Amino acid sequence: MGNISTNTDLNGHTALVTGASSGLGVRFAQVLAAAGARVVITARRAEKLAELEAEINGQGGTALAVSLDVTDLDKLGDFYETLREKDFMPDILVNNAGMNVDKAALDYAPEDFHQVLGTNLTAPFFLATEFARHHIAQGSAARIINIASVGGHKVLPGLTPYCASKAGIAMMTRGLAREWARANINVNAICPGYIETEINDFWWQTDGGKKQIASWPRRRLAGKEDLDGALLLLAGPQGSGMTGSTITVDDGQYI
Ligand code: NAD
């Protein structure tokens, strides 16, 4: 109707998705590519990335796989430099790579804690700053989408360092949005509820996992596709007025 477009068209955009070797990262890359964006897919497992790269390129999209351990902070500048040289500098960053060390707080060693916070909070911060440095120098608009969690605002028992990292990324989202508002870099976060992926699939077949699912209003696990709408909103033109927001998508698990 008229000039109003209700579909998300990401043609002309390039999106970087970290942790794209499994789970939500694979889905985010597929969805962004389906909307027309070129996608740079990164993770540590090159063979998994190659499969996704071939799938997206085989379906008429454009994907470039680059191995990256997000905790190698010293390499992030060179990583973006390589993308610039290949003319694949992203203007959409999806900070998705994340992990948990599944131990009770009393069993945590300092290296476990550093690994969780380093992957889930420190790495997204420096991926964001190196990304923004480029766009601020160029005067170009850009989007950052941080993948937080309902654990950022609700205690998930037994996951304290993980929840602390996700609360941190939610606040980091607001702080960076404020700092870069005039640079037209929109920084937002999605807080997913529980979705079955490699990060948690061991749990859902256990009695505890089944009990947890039965306690949610819809008595089911959400699917990866449930995040498509929030992702496209924050990446696309309809989300241009959103910055510093966190969107919870939890299928009503924590109403
Ligand atoms: P997943 O384990 O399937 O995927 C995590 C990805 O991050 C994997 O590809 C993994 O290899 C990658 N990764 C981990 N450490 C890395 C590192 N150092 N360098 C590069 N890549 C690294 O889990 P997922 O559920 O797809 O998780 C994706 C994101 O969503 C995470 O940030 C997670 O915390 C968040 N999240 C997941 C859920 C859920 O229920 N699945 C809920 C809320 C938030």
Question: Could you write a compact summary of the structure shown?
Answer:
The chain is α/β, with parallel strands linked by helices and 255 residues long. It contains 7 helices and 7 strands, in the order βαβαβαβαβαβααβ.
In total, the number of strands is 7
Task: Tell me the radius of gyration.
Answer: 18 Å
CATH architecture: 3-Layer(aba) Sandwich
Describe the global form: globular
Helix and strand element order: EHEHEHEHEHEHHE
Work out the helix count.
7
The parts where pLDDT drops under 50 for at least 5 residues are none
- CATH topology call: Rossmann fold
**What's the mean pLDDT score?**
97
Portion in beta strands: 5-15%
Structural class by sheet pairing and helices: alpha/beta
Structure description:
This protein has a seven-stranded parallel sheet, with helices on both faces. Helix 1 crosses helix 7 and helix 4 packs parallel to helix 5. The protein is α/β, with parallel strands linked by helices and 255 residues long. The model has no long low-confidence stretch (mean pLDDT 97). It has seven helices and seven strands; from the N terminus they run E-H-E-H-E-H-E-H-E-H-E-H-H-E. It is 40% helix and 15% strand. It binds nicotinamide-adenine-dinucleotide. Nicotinamide-adenine-dinucleotide binds next to helix 1.
